[in-house]
Write a structure and sequence with these properties.
Keywords: Signal. The strands form four sheets. The chain has a four-stranded parallel β-sheet with strand order 4-3-5-6, with helices on both faces. Strands 10-7-11-12 form a four-stranded parallel β-sheet. Strands 1-2 form a two-stranded antiparallel ribbon. The protein is α/β, with parallel strands linked by helices. Helix 7 runs antiparallel to helix 8. The chain is 41% helix and 14% strand. The chain folds into two domains: 145 residues, Nitrogenase molybdenum iron protein domain (Rossmann fold, 3-Layer(aba) Sandwich), CATH 3.40.50.1980; 125 residues, Rossmann fold (3-Layer(aba) Sandwich), CATH 3.40.50. It contains twelve helices and twelve strands.
Length: 293
């Protein structure tokens, strides 16, 4: 019997003997010999999505601002998403490093791979990508059941919001990242997907740069129905009220200077469903006021 089993394994293809395997944001096949038990996460959204996938207890290091869930705050840090220590990562002997493509940079991928580390590149650009990332993390960590449950719950929330928003007229929206310089996002950014989900249209969707600086005059000329800002924390940014200097703006006349917590709309995690719920409710009230005029 033993000889028969040994013969069977000797003729099995390599893929049949491999551990979990997924495709990352770059289309690379990422394969592990067995589920990961030592994961380094190089962006706050990655940390959060690993916890959502049920793999939080496998994370051995994070970067600064990895503050959700609360358990992540006590994990060792290897720097920030934009400046982290390669030596510290290597010293941890991880069996998986999860990299943020646009934040950590592609040179980081080459460095890590040269050292023989297995790297998964995360770059959620759409709402669907969030659920897919969580499923991938669950597969790589051996927690697929939890990951599938969380991904389905997120997707169900998004689908419900999409059905609700489909019933009302579209609103023009300016999303303000910052006031000086005046900065926004284009249609390729995930924030625009949330705006669209809520029945809005980003007035700078067609701008080539993903996070362009824009002229005040261009915002005034577009005269959006609503202006949305997140700022840097829970509090509504004071500079959002700078628009009150322009009382003829539709967003000002319609009391549509809106605030959404940045972590709930700018981080590509399941909490974006919570941020979208808040934003959709705010835009619905703007829509109702517009219809009542």
């Amino acid at each position: 019997m033993l000889r028969a089993l040994l013969l069977l394994f000797s003729v099995l293809p390599a893929w049949a003997l491999a551990g979990p395997s997924v495709t990352d944001a770059l289309g690379r096949t990422v394969t592990l010999p067995q589920p990961a038990t030592r994961i380094v996460a190089l962006a706050p959204h990655i940390v959060e999505n690993l916890y959502s996938a049920g793999a939080g207890d496998r994370v051995v290091a994070v970067v600064s601002h990895s503050d959700y869930p609360a358990a992540a705050r006590s994990l060792p840090q290897v720097g920030s998403a934009f400046s982290w220590s390669l030596e510290s990562v290597v010293a941890l002997a991880p069996d998986l490093v999860v990299l943020w493509g646009s934040g950590n940079g592609m040179s980081a991928l080459a460095q890590l791979e040269r050292l023989g580390l297995v790297v998964y590149v995360s770059e959620p650009r759409s709402l669907a990508d969030i659920g897919d990332s969580i499923r991938d993390f669950g597969e790589l960590a051996g927690t697929s059941a939890t990951a599938q449950r969380e991904a389905l719950a997120f997707e169900s929330s998004i689908a419900a919001l999409r059905r609700q928003a489909a019933t009302g007229p579209q609103l023009s929206v300016f999303y303000q990242i910052w006031n000086s310089p005046l900065q926004t996002v284009n249609g390729e950014h995930l924030i625009s997907r949330v705006i669209e989900l809520c029945g809005g249209r980003n007035i700078f969707a067609d701008t080539p740069q993903i996070a362009p600086r824009v002229a005040l005059e261009s915002v005034l000329a577009a005269d959006p129905d609503a202006i949305i800002a997140s700022g840097m924390g829970q509090s509504r940014p004071e500079w959002l009220d700078d628009w009150l200097q322009y009382p003829s703006l539709r967003a000002v006349k319609g009391d549509a200077l809106l605030h959404v917590h940045p972590d709930l709309i700018q981080r590509p995690t399941v909490r974006i469903a919570q941020g979208a719920t808040h934003l959709c409710a705010k835009l619905d009230r703007v829509r109702q006021r517009e219809q009542g005029r």
